[in-house]
Amino acid sequence: MKKFTAYKDVSQAEDLVALAKELKQHPFQHQEFGKNKTLGLVFLNPSLRTRLSTQKAAFNLGMNVMVLNLDKDSWSLELEDGTVMNQNSQEHIKDAAAVISQYCDIVGIRTFPDLKDREADYSEQLLQKFIKYAQVPIVSLESATRHPLQSLADLLTIEEHKAKAKPKVVLSWAPHPKALPQAVANSFIEWIKESDVELVVCNPEGMDLAPEFIKDVTVLHNQEEALKEADFVYAKNWSSYENYGEILAGHENWRITADKMQLTNKAKFMHCLPVRRNVVVTDEVLDSEQSLIYQQAENRTYAAQAVLLKLLGHE
Amino acid sequence: MKKFTAYKDVSQAEDLVALAKELKQHPFQHQEFGKNKTLGLVFLNPSLRTRLSTQKAAFNLGMNVMVLNLDKDSWSLELEDGTVMNQNSQEHIKDAAAVISQYCDIVGIRTFPDLKDREADYSEQLLQKFIKYAQVPIVSLESATRHPLQSLADLLTIEEHKAKAKPKVVLSWAPHPKALPQAVANSFIEWIKESDVELVVCNPEGMDLAPEFIKDVTVLHNQEEALKEADFVYAKNWSSYENYGEILAGHENWRITADKMQLTNKAKFMHCLPVRRNVVVTDEVLDSEQSLIYQQAENRTYAAQAVLLKLLGHE
Amino acid sequence: MKKFTAYKDVSQAEDLVALAKELKQHPFQHQEFGKNKTLGLVFLNPSLRTRLSTQKAAFNLGMNVMVLNLDKDSWSLELEDGTVMNQNSQEHIKDAAAVISQYCDIVGIRTFPDLKDREADYSEQLLQKFIKYAQVPIVSLESATRHPLQSLADLLTIEEHKAKAKPKVVLSWAPHPKALPQAVANSFIEWIKESDVELVVCNPEGMDLAPEFIKDVTVLHNQEEALKEADFVYAKNWSSYENYGEILAGHENWRITADKMQLTNKAKFMHCLPVRRNVVVTDEVLDSEQSLIYQQAENRTYAAQAVLLKLLGHE
């Protein structure tokens, strides 16, 4: 594995899930891989789970960690090539990436989309330029269109909690007052659709995700129909892909409630967090026995640890 | 010891002081307790001494440390239960606490009072909710009403510098241009009043601290009378408890000066820092041989180290 | 070595360069010096290279590291002695320095000039006061007038890439839209002029650096003349020393271009970064085979590591 930014970077996703599961049992057994190695974590956006779980994963492997809040601690970045940099940007991304990778054995980077220019966001320009100019393996800590560390943790969580060989997994759009990226949803689909599950995505009309992600995936516009006999319900808001970045108002009835969970096969409930309680999903569901939200959070450590270990050369 | 937020969390304060004293002599002797353990430090407010001394304490024990400036690096918190979170707060404290504790063996948290709603501040709502939902031991890095790591360091400092079995210790209110919490004063009283000292608190009329802290404590409104024959003078400003959060103006003459120190029994001078020089106390006193301000700061490391070691299971 | 803030703090610069070169080959060989030692990095200004390379250097030596963004994480500092601190500053530098050094074995500090009061900047008041009150060795992470870790890395880079015994090294002023410190240029001259090179500084008239730095140095006001037969070209902007802090406009033709590099002896190109591309120097030069900008950045680690190792007591 040379980098970890999308499903296609991984040769065998099941092997990575299995490795994460093993690391959860024996977290400190591979410190010979991390000794004298340094992980750099670069944030251009806020982070709680990713920030802490990835550090913890590195500590478990015996690595050193440096955190750089690039938006606050350092210089503003220029993304365009050939620009005469006489305005506000102080350092070109090609120089920042090349320099940061002088000091790190692996670099993680978080960069959100601006949700204004779809083509720019979906070309993943910042992440791709960073990869191009860095000289070490790059781990996405969530990029404009994907959040693969979250998806890997989600796969591990489903693997741990499934009660049948081929569970039904429903990803449901949910309401939210702010414009959010499509990254978590895109990424979850990209990873889970290759697993041995029955995947159903449901969202209001006009809120379909990008064709590259939902190709060959069952997408329903009727939430109740989708939830029937579900074994796992994953709720997540995203802003519109079609009317790029727009918020869909007036769909509060898409909120996941205990009544809706009654339609399912006593489904487990999942969300990547942070979650706006009683907007996306009710307290009753989040705080129920069926909720796996903290298990997902816990599994972030072992997902990150498996990825770091692979990038450090573990077979 | 399950947590460290107030005097009552500790079974034998003298034992903790003795442990801190021992760690100061042999700081690196217990690294088997900290190996592969992670301390998370969560700040909702500025910090210098606490931030650095607690990290240093953890390093001395061989622990890993992660720092989260929750107010800047992450998401804004919701404190109320049952809220429909469709406004500004992005993550509920119950989720933040549960998640952060997935990645840490011990979590330290700093949360200042807003000094507007006395009942809310004195119920320690943020700290208590964090404790309720966290799944690991919590250390207060200063909360709305207490600063116990400071108090433990202060006890160690008095223990090291007392010249008689039962010294007279005077805690004196001092002037300040901004509204400050009562936490350091409350906490100092809570800890020192159980020690073998003669404790006197002095403050202007109307500036008495909360009854729960000054019950059974000698409180004088005449500073000169209080200072007589003192062996230790601890100066600290606090805003009003009665007229909650108000600044008391026009009492510049409560500033500690060399002349006032002449009233004492060559008393040692103490302050928790940061201190506004020549407002709270004059340079002459702060920079004198009698001043223990840097010794107090140094002892913060060993106070924190003793607390962390206890929480890691040291008997 | 007691501190590292200027050339004069070092007894033998060549020995330090040689140590840095050796550490680059064997970075992890001296961890017995760093074990249980803590480096504190204090930033009052932005930093990328210095922040990461100095952490990496400390990790290579087995040290623990704590980073304090003093401008954001903590309290605002008072620099003047004797002030009645009833305004905005919350902590005196003498207290901050004394306290921070309680928790660290070595402290690094970054403090930029304000470029308004030349005398204040050139007296290095903040750095000097910090040193005066700290009780441990201090490393400058760039101060008002010098950036010695950069200069040491630059010396190492020149040593590695020189093709003749006494190369011609040209430091050229270059255009920039903002007022920048003179620190990198001052410091480069201070270090390189003692080496076995032919040093030429060139800048527009009125942009001469401080006499203490350019005394006995060849300073030309004609860039083309200066560049002739150069083996190394180091480009850097600085604001005016004479009209202190002023930007020199209308000198875009001082930008380093491929054409200008033709005047040289196939010179290597150097810049400390961050660089405003196509303002200071063209992409063509920066991205050419002759460019050493990333090698300079890489060498920051080993320069810092040599300095830390010396301060830890290595002979």
TrEMBL record, chains A, B, C:
<comment type="pathway">
    <text>Amino-acid biosynthesis; L-arginine biosynthesis.</text>
</comment>
<dbReference type="Pfam" id="PF02729">
    <property type="entry name" value="OTCace_N"/>
</dbReference>
<feature type="domain" description="Aspartate/ornithine carbamoyltransferase carbamoyl-P binding">
    <location>
        <begin position="4"/>
        <end position="160"/>
    </location>
</feature>
<comment type="function">
    <text>Catalyzes the transfer of the carbamoyl group from carbamoyl phosphate to the delta-amino group of N(2)-succinyl-L-ornithine to produce N(2)-succinyl-L-citrulline. Is essential for arginine biosynthesis.</text>
</comment>
<feature type="binding site" description="in other chain">
    <location>
        <begin position="272"/>
        <end position="273"/>
    </location>
    <ligand>
        <name>carbamoyl phosphate</name>
    </ligand>
</feature>
<dbReference type="Pfam" id="PF00185">
    <property type="entry name" value="OTCace"/>
</dbReference>
<dbReference type="InterPro" id="IPR043696">
    <property type="entry name" value="ArgF'-like"/>
</dbReference>
<feature type="binding site" description="in other chain">
    <location>
        <position position="300"/>
    </location>
    <ligand>
        <name>carbamoyl phosphate</name>
    </ligand>
</feature>
<feature type="domain" description="Aspartate/ornithine carbamoyltransferase Asp/Orn-binding">
    <location>
        <begin position="184"/>
        <end position="309"/>
    </location>
</feature>
<feature type="binding site">
    <location>
        <position position="75"/>
    </location>
    <ligand>
        <name>carbamoyl phosphate</name>
    </ligand>
</feature>
<protein>
    <recommendedName>
        <fullName>N-succinylornithine carbamoyltransferase</fullName>
        <ecNumber>2.1.3.11</ecNumber>
    </recommendedName>
</protein>
<feature type="binding site" description="in other chain">
    <location>
        <begin position="147"/>
        <end position="150"/>
    </location>
    <ligand>
        <name>carbamoyl phosphate</name>
    </ligand>
</feature>
<dbReference type="InterPro" id="IPR006130">
    <property type="entry name" value="Asp/Orn_carbamoylTrfase"/>
</dbReference>
<feature type="binding site">
    <location>
        <position position="176"/>
    </location>
    <ligand>
        <name>N(2)-succinyl-L-ornithine</name>
    </ligand>
</feature>
<comment type="similarity">
    <text>Belongs to the aspartate/ornithine carbamoyltransferase superfamily. SOTCase family.</text>
</comment>
<keyword id="KW-0808">Transferase</keyword>
<feature type="binding site" description="in other chain">
    <location>
        <position position="110"/>
    </location>
    <ligand>
        <name>carbamoyl phosphate</name>
    </ligand>
</feature>
<feature type="binding site">
    <location>
        <position position="142"/>
    </location>
    <ligand>
        <name>N(2)-succinyl-L-ornithine</name>
    </ligand>
</feature>
<dbReference type="GO" id="GO:0042450">
    <property type="term" value="P:L-arginine biosynthetic process via ornithine"/>
</dbReference>
<dbReference type="GO" id="GO:0019240">
    <property type="term" value="P:citrulline biosynthetic process"/>
</dbReference>
<feature type="binding site">
    <location>
        <position position="236"/>
    </location>
    <ligand>
        <name>N(2)-succinyl-L-ornithine</name>
    </ligand>
</feature>
<dbReference type="GO" id="GO:0016597">
    <property type="term" value="F:amino acid binding"/>
</dbReference>
<feature type="binding site" description="in other chain">
    <location>
        <begin position="47"/>
        <end position="50"/>
    </location>
    <ligand>
        <name>carbamoyl phosphate</name>
    </ligand>
</feature>
<keyword id="KW-0028">Amino-acid biosynthesis</keyword>
<dbReference type="InterPro" id="IPR006131">
    <property type="entry name" value="Asp_carbamoyltransf_Asp/Orn-bd"/>
</dbReference>
<keyword id="KW-0055">Arginine biosynthesis</keyword>
<dbReference type="GO" id="GO:0004585">
    <property type="term" value="F:ornithine carbamoyltransferase activity"/>
</dbReference>
<dbReference type="InterPro" id="IPR036901">
    <property type="entry name" value="Asp/Orn_carbamoylTrfase_sf"/>
</dbReference>
<dbReference type="InterPro" id="IPR006132">
    <property type="entry name" value="Asp/Orn_carbamoyltranf_P-bd"/>
</dbReference>
<feature type="binding site">
    <location>
        <position position="276"/>
    </location>
    <ligand>
        <name>N(2)-succinyl-L-ornithine</name>
    </ligand>
</feature>
<comment type="subunit">
    <text>Homotrimer.</text>
</comment>
